[in-house]
Amino acid sequence: MQTGLTHTEVLIIGAGLAGTTLALSLPSSMRITLLSTAAAPCGASPMALGGLAAVLSAEDSLEQHIADTLEAGAQHSDPNAVRGIVYAAPQAVDWLLQQQVPLDRSDDGQLHLTREGGHSQRRIVHAADASGQAIMQALLHQLAHAPNILPRPHCQALALRRNEQGQVAGVDIYDKQAGRYQTILADHVVLATGGLGSLYSHSTNPSSALGEGVALAWRVGAQLRDLEFIQFHPTCLHAQGTTFLLTEALRGEGGYLLDAHGHRFMANYDQRAELAPRDIVSRSIAAQMRHDDTHHVWLDVRHLGADTLQQHFPKALEEGLRRGLDLRCDWIPVAPAAHYSCGGIQTDLSGRSTVPGLYAIGEVACTGLHGANRLASNSLLECVVMGRTAAQTIAANVPTKRLPLVPADKKSAVNTKTKITLSALQAVTQEHLGLLRNRAGLQEALQTVQEWRQQINTISKTPENHAMSLQLDTAWLLAQAALARPLSLGAHFRLN
């Protein structure tokens, strides 16, 4: 294999909404490299359905948005982070409009606002029910006209590198298309690698969302936070084929959840019924499925009317029809699936981690906004706000001197017949680190994953084994965090 060395001013690992926003918000005079594991658009951002939360109505207020966020997060959020990001939300929407994102408008020309679970007011701007796709298409068009931004698709990050002062100043990668290893030096390194939902066998996430960014940061000493809080989305289509998320807005607009007998049941669990926060709705559905001995419940949106479904939820309607289900006249089978990591790499409100030179933004990061459970549509908001604020910080901190990297740690490895599969890891995670947890299961997961971590170190370091080693580290860290929190809180629910 060939090796190489190259330099860039800003290296962004991840080309979803957070990474792309950062790249487009930096000065055009800066040289930027944007790594991704696949060709754009990739990651979870294009899959986001609901939209972006922002206070834009006279009936709403910033204080209400803050209160809703804190309530959904089980009062575990950082109030300063919540206030800072919520206050920046209207400017984030303005920036998206400047990038020519086609957000839906009402007949009077104002931005159309919808409501989702946990929100006390209508405050979700959206592009029908495919907001992430519309946003990313617009931003990718802007990227194509930015000569200072170099996209590097099909590249796998293997390890972060530090200089003689301990600052992160580069990354070792494997270029899958060129078939070569390379080290990229950078003045600023930003992790925007997304979440870890695909460590679970039932997930709404893309297959690339395996938590490798968390492990990359942890290995260089970055502080992690709230990793145990994995949000499950309550209404994922339970049918053959890949998991498909049915947007929160379907319930926000008045959709009903029905048990096996066709009766609404959410009011038995929470007075907000279908509009309760996601963690409550997910656990309620799980409880109802256990009670009825079924694998799903039903979502009924027929009463919303064909015109409303066609206008505001065309993607859900299309996907249902593709699988033989018609939202206009059928009950839709739904069940919870792993959806969002509320925790991650601890950062401040400029995206800086606890390790000098290393930033983290988007789902891989933990600003403290989400607390123990993310409020719907606060994630796209955080991506845009943190991408823009990190850009301001990076632009204002141009290094005066570049120091050489510390030599990479060369671990010896031998060829063995040991093979640890992702599907085996997903099965352990789904069973023991899922929606409902107990001490014995968490301990079993921790022990199993630890044994696999030890085994992987005896295997020759191919790119695939590098990736599996990172995934095992993240699963082990997740199990540790869940075991260390004995009481239920938000998305972390302990049966015992």
Describe this structure as you would to a colleague:
The protein is α/β, with parallel strands linked by helices and 496 residues long. The protein folds into 3 domains: 278 residues, FAD/NAD(P)-binding domain, CATH 3.50.50.60; 103 residues, Flavocytochrome C3, Chain A, domain 1 (Alpha-Beta Complex); 63 residues, Up-down Bundle (Methane Monooxygenase Hydroxylase, Chain G, domain 1), CATH 1.20.58. The chain is built from 14 helices and 18 strands. The strands form 4 sheets. Strands 1, 2, 6, 7, 8, 9 and 17 form a 7-stranded mixed β-sheet that branches. Strands 12-11-15-14-13 form a 5-stranded antiparallel β-sheet. A 3-stranded antiparallel β-sheet has the order 3-5-4. A hairpin with a 6-residue loop joins strand 11 and strand 12. It is globular and about 65 Å long. The protein starts with a strand and ends in a 12-residue tail after the last helix. The mean pLDDT is 93. Keywords: FAD, Flavoprotein, Oxidoreductase, Pyridine nucleotide biosynthesis. Belongs to the FAD-dependent oxidoreductase 2 family. NadB subfamily. It catalyses: L-aspartate + O2 = iminosuccinate + H2O2. It is an enzyme of class 1 (oxidoreductase).
